[in-house]
């Protein structure tokens, strides 16, 4: 996953345009009148509902008297806002909410995962991914949808593990490691793979043991953080993705994302340390590998 994505570039640009408008004291209708635009155009642009073009952005920056080098930096974002996303070829196989999440994920530099049901998607082996997608966990899927989602999962994983700019902290519930997906050899392979990934300097994995209970009553979630832009600073807040029965949804509310950061910190506090988690994974791998493969 490259540092930045069209989704994040677009959100950054419109957030800064809105911030600058508010800083100079213009209302949306005042901007629309000055540029002979409709009021709906400025509203849709600032809400990210339409793609900004260079001419519109230049007109706004002129009106707001945006100084250099910030002006040039924002203009440089414009062409990046409309660049193709890597996952677009899979749009027929994924939901609109998940499309939005993938756009954010591609531009993140930090992420925090809590998972109590299955191995996080970006850590799954191909065999585990194919098995879990085919179980009906994501609803009833056709063979083609299973194949397409598995292909997406594997490509997403490759981009994830080959992105040195991304730092990840993951907490997995012990029950996930005991839940058989596929057969015993598949589970042993998956747990071995988790250990290999955990050796990477930018991936930290912890296991929450069952005897710790559930210190915070939260659903499975992912938190994403984005890079700052030079001179402009932090233009975009953290993003939260919470799984639910309908699939999941992106949440940008600052208060809720903060609460989930606190929840993750509490989970991390009571979970095994990364070193202890590695030992636990090795122990569970041995148990799975020693069992006869069942049908």
From TrEMBL:
It holds the Pfam family HTH_31. It comes from Nonomuraea terrae. InterPro entries: Cro/C1-type_HTH, DUF5753, Lambda_DNA-bd_dom_sf. Residues 17-71 form the HTH cro/C1-type domain. It comes from the Bacteria. GO terms for molecular function: DNA binding. Gene3D superfamilies: lambda repressor-like DNA-binding domains. This is XRE family transcriptional regulator. SMART domains: HTH_XRE.
């Amino acid at each position: 996953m490259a540092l930045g994505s069209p989704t994040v570039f677009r959100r950054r640009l419109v957030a800064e345009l809105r911030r600058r408008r508010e800083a100079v004291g213009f209302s949306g209708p005042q901007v629309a009148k000055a540029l002979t635009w409709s009021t709906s155009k400025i509203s849709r642009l600032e809400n990210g509902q339409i793609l900004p073009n260079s001419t519109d952005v230049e007109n706004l920056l002129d009106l707001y008297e945006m100084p250099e080098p910030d002006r040039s930096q924002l203009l440089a974002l414009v062409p990046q806002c409309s660049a193709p996303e890597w996952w677009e070829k899979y749009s027929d196989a994924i939901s609109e909410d998940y499309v939005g999440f993938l756009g954010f994920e591609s531009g993140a530099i930090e992420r925090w995962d809590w998972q109590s049901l299955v191995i996080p998607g970006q850590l799954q082996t191909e065999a585990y991914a194919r098995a879990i997608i085919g179980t009906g966990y994501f609803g009833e899927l056709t063979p083609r949808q299973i194949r397409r989602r598995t292909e997406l999962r594997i490509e997403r994983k490759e981009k994830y593990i080959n992105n040195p700019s991304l730092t990840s902290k993951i907490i997995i519930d012990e029950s996930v490691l005991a839940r058989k997906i596929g057969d015993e050899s598949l589970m042993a392979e998956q747990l071995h793979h988790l250990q290999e990934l955990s050796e990477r300097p930018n991936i930290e994995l912890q296991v929450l043991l069952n005897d710790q209970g559930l210190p915070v009553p939260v659903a499975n979630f992912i938190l994403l953080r984005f890079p700052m832009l030079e001179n402009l600073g932090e233009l975009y807040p953290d993003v939260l993705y919470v799984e639910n029965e309908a699939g999941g949804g992106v949440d940008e509310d600052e208060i809720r994302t903060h609460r989930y950061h606190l929840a993750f910190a509490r989970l991390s506090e009571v979970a095994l340390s990364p070193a202890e988690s590695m030992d636990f994974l090795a122990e569970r791998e041995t148990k799975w590998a020693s069992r006869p493969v069942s049908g």
